[in-house]
Amino acid sequence: MIIIRKKLDDLLGYFPVPVYTGVYGGTLLKNGFSMENSGVELAAEYRESIGDVNFSIGGNFAFLDNKVTKLTDNQGAYVTQSISLTSHDGGAITQTAVGGRIGNFLGYQTAGIAQTDAEAAAAPLGGLYAGDRLYEDVTPDGIINASDKVTLGNGLPKYTFGFDVKADFKGFDISAFSLGKPVFRLPICFTEPYMICATTTPQVL
Question: What's the start-to-end Cα distance of the chain, in Å?
């Protein structure tokens, strides 16, 4: 068993340039944030021999907790990073804030599919029709805008695991292994207007 606890300081990141500098919406790459990783890794293996055949079965599991501990000098600040693939995905971004994991996916929480034109017309997001995706009005103020974006997941897996099998017989050997981790799929939903949507159900690779 391995116990992990590591603090990382003065990491590079893109930070917004203050408006009073005269550069609106600009960013600056600098050493400005710190984070902490902690976790545990377990590994086990079973070995056995049957006649001239030797074989082993092993497995491992690792858990990682990631937390941003400092972001410039403002403990309540956050920074965003574009992960937009096209001009039609609603401006996909990640958000990093103190106390959270680095690079959380930020987007609109889906609320199902509009079954009728009447249901679509009643949605806070205008211009929808039956069959279009609905979105949660998180605030709620009757309008879908950037204030309704929530954390949908994170690309840094909380745990990873693996299995391996080995066997040898009179100088011949064979082995196989498998690795896995949970991920979050971020499918692009082409609606009018264009927005990004996501499923928060972990998919195991």
Answer: 24
Distance CA(191)–CA(194), nearest Å, equals: 5
DSSP per-residue string spanning 61-87: EEEEEEEEEEETT-TT-EEEEE---ST
Q: Is 81 left (phi over 0), alpha (psi -120 to 50) or beta?
A: beta
Which tokens go with 124? 């806070």
Q: How far apart are CA 76 and CA 68, in angstroms?
A: 11
**Residue 20 main-chain phi, psi, to 5 deg:** -65, -10
- Say if CB 162 and CB 133 are below 8 A apart: no
Neighbouring-strand partners of residue 37: 6, 66
pLDDT, tens only, 28-71: 777 878 899 999 999 999 999 999 999 999 999 999 999 998 87
Give the separation between CA 171 and CA 157, rounded to whole angstroms: 39
Neighbouring CB atoms inside 10 A of 91's CB total 17
Nearest residue to 52 via CA among 170, 157, 154, 200: 170
Q: Closest Cα to residue 164, out of 174, 150, 149? A: 174
Residue 117: DSSP 8-state: H
